[in-house]
Amino acid sequence: MKKLFIYSVALLMCACQQPYAEVTTNDKKSETIKTLFEKVGEENIDYLKEIFSDSMEFVDPAGNKLNKSGFISAVENLYDMFDDISVLEMNGDALGSEVETVTYSNGIVWTNIWNTFSAKGKYTGQNVSFPFHLSYQWAGDKIIKEVQFFDTSVFQKEMNAKAAANNTSPKVVITIDMAVNSGYSKEDVKAFTKNLNQFIRDNEPNTYDYSYFISEDGKRVTLIEKFRSSEDFIFHADKFENGPNIETFMKMFTFKSLVVAGNVSQQLKERVKNYPAEFRGNIGGWIY
């Protein structure tokens, strides 16, 4: 019995020492990912179409998901925005840029890469460089999932410049100049706009800029609002008119001017026709 107990303990210790996953850096899948990034630098879209499964899932840093068709379109858009795309050499020394494949005991296989993306923006003309981390899940020799982890602000900046160059930005900017009506102090305005700001944050995820500016004497206020599309501004107008703040807003402020700027839709023009709105279209620059 004592020998049986010792044998059982020995088996348990051996089992505990078995790795849950095996990590390799010079395997076929790791080499495939290195080749993948060489092909990206060459703008060889055919290699990507071959190595990614037709049933793949792509997850960007914001959590948005695309199928293979959407993923390929996103890569083609990358080529349209940047020249001279490159990453640092991955030679197995683990000194900053590397690729490794992890094979788990349950059979799931992921290849991970951490590196630095460098390129030149075609629309901004700026040289860019930023660190990134990507993970690829495999099914046989095909990639079935890509998950990205990095700051996308460089891409967003180039997309804004592209939209400006082609005058295709759907974003809308609203600038409202208002007088503060008699009986309301600067402190009253600050307290009220604080409530307005919170209401916008709670109810309007696509109102991405919303700022009040007040004169030194507290008698004039400028409101600047930015929306991702005309539809988002219409949504904002509906929320505002049916929300808890409109009565106080109209008592506190008098409109002096209201400028709606951007490639606005006809539906938006109809929606705000009861306001003293002036519309101005894009002729240059860009909207963040």
Describe this protein's structure.
With 288 residues, the protein is α+β, with helices and mostly antiparallel strands. It has 2 domains: 153 residues, Nuclear Transport Factor 2, Chain: A, CATH 3.10.450; 109 residues, Alpha-Beta Plaits, CATH 3.30.70. Helices cover 38% and strands 34% of the residues. It has 9 helices and 13 strands. Strand 7 and strand 8 form a beta hairpin. It is elongated. About 3% of the residues have low confidence.
Give the topology string: H per helix, E per strand.
HEHHEEHEEEEEHEHEEHHEHE
Distance between the termini: 75 Å
**Biggest sheet statistics:** 8 strands, mixed
Tell me which CATH architecture of the largest domain applies here. Answer: Roll
Q: How large is the share of residues in beta strands?
A: 25-35%
The percent of residues in helical segments reads 25-40%
Shape: elongated
What's the gist of this structure?
The protein has helices at residues 2-17, 28-41, 45-51, 68-81, 153-166, 186-203, 230-241, 246-252, 266-271, and strands at residues 21-24, 52-59, 65-66, 82-86, 98-104, 109-121, 127-139, 142-149, 172-180, 207-214, 220-227, 253-262, 277-280. With 288 residues, the protein is an alpha+beta fold.
Key traits:
Nuclear Transport Factor 2, Chain: A; Alpha-Beta Plaits; 2 domains; five-stranded mixed sheet; 9 helices; 13 strands; elongated
Task: Please specify the SSE layout and strand pairing.
Blueprint lengths: L1 H16 L3 E4 L3 H14 L3 H7 E8 L5 E2 L1 H14 E5 L11 E7 L4 E13 L5 E13 L2 E8 L3 H14 L5 E9 L5 H18 L3 E8 L5 E8 L2 H12 L4 H7 E10 L3 H6 L5 E4 L8
Parallel strand pairs: 2-8, 12-13
Antiparallel strand pairs: 1-5, 2-3, 4-6, 5-6, 6-7, 7-8, 9-11, 9-12, 10-11
